[in-house]
Design goal:
405 residues; alpha+beta; Cytochrome p450; three-stranded antiparallel sheet; 13 strands; globular; binds protoporphyrin IX containing FE
Length: 405
């Protein structure tokens, strides 16, 4: 782990962004961090920098020459420590390698493909929401929310239909590795070999449907854009990044709507607001709250001296609530115009390569909900998962009442 050389930095804090207390309500510590005079604050518990104001977050994410992704997507510093799995060929590399793999993923998740997928996403969302309405009361996370991305996304990649719950365990390993090693994580990682083998088998060409995104990635290998082995790892990147993110973002958006009945009423009256409602939730309270960068050299960051190979925690969740950027930042407003300034999908060269697919999933899900559901009633406390990595709910007890007209 990196340590500070020489004089103490001007601003430091003993807040611990990986602690359950911080994660249970990050928005108050986000406020405290944004209010420091310096744009980067030293976190004493982990010997890392943190950046939380909107402008500073954009500045770091826009500066890949000094703030690298090759140091690893989590707290582990790949410049100093060995990663647990082979680093991601897209998220954990810098240019020029990054451009090559990113171009392939941009092409296979094209606007045309999304256009074709829309109808199948709609059929699936309608079926799941009808089923939820038949039940009436449900735990919306396992019974509804998880089932939607777990069906539509692996289907789009071309995975065969089977029990896909191992994907959630794999996702927990990938995102759980974001923070310090805890007993929970060590316990989870006892399954790493079995779970990795399960995932890697599903990334092989022969297991993927001929018309899916996975096969399209292999076609790029045939064309010589990437190696065959790289195609396998790019399919793995999609399976790592494409399920838990959308599950957690849809789950948190659903909770926002349940907790803000006046916003739900607006959406129910006009299902066309579904895309903007999901966009607002991605700013307000979403799965991806934080990212990491690692300095490639000594950096003067807006007057703060950062040393080479130090980790920088980039709090996009705090940037999404920065009152210097957003009017009434702590208000959830489904009519807000967010997209042009959205930070919830990151920014710069690594910004979410599949954000249009994530938006499509959110839009389709909430449009179907708005067309079919009259009332969303919280019938018990929602449970947050307090592990590092993604923010999300493990439980959301709801009663759903069908629209009659
Ligand atoms: C609401 C859902 C999602 C959210 C909030 C989200 C968020 C993000 C964020 C913040 C980043 C930037 C990471 C960084 O800069 O360090 C990112 C990158 C990425 N996301 Fe997403 N994501 C979502 C859905 C998806 C889906 C569905 C997929 C797969 C189809 C996906 C695949 C990726 C990949 C491959 C990258 C790496 C891009 C690169 O390094 O160039 N994401 N995502």
């Amino acid at each position: 782990m990196a340590v500070m050389r020489g004089a103490a930095p001007p601003d430091s804090s003993d807040l611990d962004p990986f602690s359950p207390e911080f994660r249970a309500n990050p928005f108050e510590p986000y406020r405290q961090l944004r209010e420091f005079a310096a744009p980067a604050v030293w976190l004493t518990k982990h010997s890392i920098w943190v950046v939380s104001r909107y402008d500073a977050v954009r500045a770091v994410l826009g500066d890949w020459k000094r703030f690298s992704n090759a140091g690893g997507g989590g707290l582990t510093n790949y410049f100093l420590e060995k990663p647990w799995r082979r680093p991601s060929l897209i998220l954990e590399v810098d240019p020029p390698e990054h451009q090559r793999t990113r171009r392939v993923l941009m092409q296979v998740i094209s606007a045309d493909r999304l256009q074709r997928l829309r109808a199948t996403f709609e059929v699936q969302a309608d079926a799941l929401i009808d089923e939820a309405l038949e039940r009436g009361t449900l735990d919306a996370i396992p019974d509804l929310v998880q089932r939607f991305p777990l069906t539509v996304f692996p289907d789009a990649v071309g995975m065969r239909r089977e029990d896909r719950s191992t994907m959630l365990t794999y996702g927990a390993m990938v995102f759980g590795g974001f923070g310090p090693v805890t007993p929970w994580y060590q316990d989870l990682m006892k399954q790493a070999d079995t779970v990795s083998a399960w995932i890697m088998e599903r990334c092989q060409r022969q297991t993927l449907a001929a018309d899916g995104i996975g096969a399209a990635i292999y076609a790029h290998a045939d064309a010589g854009d990437i190696e065959q082995g790289e195609a396998t790892l790019l399919v793995r990147s999609l399976l790592s990044a494409g399920v838990d993110t959308t599950i957690d973002s849809i789950g948190l958006c659903l909770r926002c709507l349940a907790e803000h009945p006046e916003q739900w009423a607006l959406l129910r009256a006009d299902p066309q607001l579904a895309r903007s409602a999901f966009e607002e939730a991605t700013r307000f309270d979403s799965s991806s709250q934080s990212l990491f960068r690692t300095t490639l050299e000594d950096v003067d960051f807006q007057g703060v001296p950062l040393q080479k190979h130090q980790k920088v925690l980039v709090l996009i969740g705090a940037a999404g609530r920065d009152p210097a950027k957003w009017a009434d930042a702590d208000r959830f407003d489904v009519t807000r115009r967010v997209t042009a300034s959205q930070i919830g999908y990151g920014a710069g060269i690594h910004s979410c390569v599949a954000q249009m697919m994530a938006r499509l999933e959110g839009e389709v899900f909430f449009a179907s909900l708005a067309r079919k559901v009259q009332d969303i009633e919280l019938i018990g406390p929602a449970q947050l998962r307090l592990q590092p990595g993604l923010r999300g709910l493990s439980s959301l007890p709801l009663r759903l009442i069908r629209k009659t007209s």
